[in-house]
Fold this sequence. Notes:
The protein is an alpha+beta fold.
Amino acid sequence: MTTTEPIAPPPWGARAKRIALPAVISAVTLAGSFGAADSQTDRREADWLMVVLILIGSVSLYWRRTRPVPVLWATVCSTLAYMLMQYPYGPVIFSFVIAAFTVIRCGHRLAGWAGIVALYVGHVGGRLILGINEDGIYQILLVGTIFVVLGFTAELFRAQRDRAMAAARTRQEAELRKAGEERLRIAQELHDVVAHHISLINVQASTALHLVDRQPEQAGPALAAIKEASKEALVELRSIVGILRQSDESAPRQPVAGLEGLEQLVSRTSRAGLEVHTIVHGDPHPLPTRLDRAAFRIIQESLTNIVRHAKANAATVRIQYGEDALVIQVDDDGQSLTGPPKEGNGIIGMRERATALGGTLTATRTPTGSLRITAHLPL
């Protein structure tokens, strides 16, 4: 059995705001029209029909936000009837002005201009048909000019509203794009950290299992390396998760990984059985945070791929500090293969890091058939 709950009415504050304008316009229009009737003795006397026509236009403003076009035509009809019946000139036009302004500002431009033209043409044409010729040509042109000014004023406000909405959409899209880029960056960080440490743990665990029965006294270093790798993985993961939580002010907003941690990375990888040689060209100097982190992650991912796939005994990391760019090259002495290397998620992620900084990353074969990663990161 399906039950439906009644829709709650809008709060009293919202209803009061919607009622306020129609109530004020009704009071002002009625008071002004009755006051004008006392001084305009040549016009038709005020009666109950005048009150009805005034209230039709002013009360309909209650729905101007939800049904602006029907409200506009209600004010057009009531105002036109009021004028053609020669009731006293007064503030009866206020309801129509507000309705037309609202319609055009909300984007219903054709309906708004159609209402303005209909009221003006109906007024002029109706007076000719009914034989009411007391207004001269100048007064007719003046009324038409006022209506045109009303329409263009509403157009100006509509254009300003559209610009504000477009600017808000642009800001929202920029925020969403920035959030997406941040999620991608965090995903890359998680991939690099998890893949690197899990690969080292896997290698060390395989070594420990191999030695635990034959040479149990030599399994200790492998188990110690597993413990250290898992501890470092937890530290880096905690740092990355701190970005997402942002509840602990002491948590760093960005991972601290950078080239200053290269020595620890080399030592950790060497304990996994891969001998790593580091060669630095140029004068090392502090790098921008994003560049420093990207360089470290590219080296880390390259060594991770070597440990997992290359069946290599040694790797060489070359870092060249240039005037315009930082160049990283990682080679290994692994299996000799021919043809272009297959690009998995690791190489794709490294290339995305380099591209995000305006740089390039290539994966090629060395003359011996092993894999070479080369990254150019502009300063």
